[in-house]
Amino acid sequence: MSTIGFEELINKYTTVLFDCDGVLWRGNELIPGSKEFIDHLRKHNKRLIFVTNNASQSREQYRTKFQKFGLDVSTDEIYGSAYAATVYLKYKLKSKKAFVIGMSGLEHELDTEGIEHIGGTSEEYNKLTTDIDFKGIKDSIDPSVDTVLCGMDLMLNYSKLSHAFSYLENKNVNFVLTNDDSTFPQSAGIFPGSGSLSAPLILASGRTPTVVGKPNKEMLDCILDKNHLNNEETLMIGDRLNTDIKFGQEGGLDTLLVLSGVSKREDIEKENIYPKYILNSLDDLN
Ligand SMILES: C[C@H](OP(=O)(O)O)C(=O)O
Ligand SMILES: [Mg+2]
User: Fold this and answer.
1) Of 6, 104, 140, 141, which one's alpha carbon is 20 to 30 angstroms from that of 265?
2) What spacing in Å lies between the alpha carbon of 103 and ligand 2's midpoint?
C-alpha cells in the first residue's frame, strides 16, 4: 500500500472510477480539492465514471448536483445504485411492478424503464401515524407486485415496512436492495445508510435480498454493459473499504482509498482489505 502522485496517476491510468459520497462530497458539501482534481483529469483527456451506492437520486438529478458544483458531467458517466437496481429489475428479473422503500430518484429511474411502482414517496405510505390499519395492509396486497425494492428512504416508517414485509411473505416476490452500506457520510458526520434501513425487513422476513450496489457484480455489469474497461489502465477511487475498494479489487482494478469519508486507516487491518494506494483526500493529488 503506498501513496500516488498526480503525474504517476495520469501516466498509468486512462480511466478513473470515482465513488461520490465521502470522495467528491459529503452531503451537499464539496470535499476540498475534488473539483480541481476532476478538472485536471479532464484536461488530460481521461475517461471518468462516477459510481455511487447512494440511491436517493437519479442519474439526471446527480448531473444537476455536479453542475451546481461547477462540474460538467454527462448522465452516461454516472452509475448510481438506483439506476443499476432498475436495470437489474428490468433485464434480469423482467419485473413489471415493484413495492418501493425509497425516494424520488429511485422512482425516476423506474419510470425511465417503464417499471410501475407503489410505496416510495406516494402520500398514502408517508403518513406518520400510530393508528395502523393492520387488516387494511394485508387487504391492500397488489398481486401484480413482483418485487420489493429497498433503497435510501429518509421517510421510512412502520407502515411502509409492514407493507413491504407483507409482500415478502410471498416467496415468489423478489427482494432487492439498491445497496447495503451500513452508514453514509454527511458534512455533519456519519449516519445510518440503506443497509441499516433494510435490516428490519431482512430480520422480520427471514429472507436474504439480492444487493445490487458496490461491491456486488451487478453494479460492475451495469457499467460494463456500456463501457469497455481496460483493467490495467483503470483506477477505482473510494472512501469505503467494504464497498468501493472491494468492488475495485473484485473487478480486477487498482484501487485508491481516500480517508475523507467513512473508512479510517485503522480499518484496513481490521477489515483485511488493502487498497493499492491511500491518500488523505483527492486534494493530495492537486
Ligand atoms: C451511500 C453512499 O454512497 P457512495 O457514493 O459512497 O457509494 C455511501 O455509502 O457513502
Ligand atoms: Mg463513499
Assistant:
1) 6
2) 19
Q: How many C-beta atoms surround the C-beta of residue 133 within 10 A?
A: 12
pLDDT of residue 219: 95
Distances (CA, A) of 192 to 60, 102, 180, 182, 214: 25, 14, 10, 6, 17
**Which CATH code, of 3.40.50.1170, 3.40.50.1000, 3.40.640.10, 2.40.100.20, is assigned to 6-53+215-285?**
3.40.50.1000
- Single pTM value for the model: 0.95
Q: Which residues contact 132 (CB under 8 A, 6 or more apart)?
A: 158, 159, 162
Whole-number Å distance, alpha carbon 238 to ligand 2 midpoint, is 6
Query: The complex's ipTM?
Result: 0.95
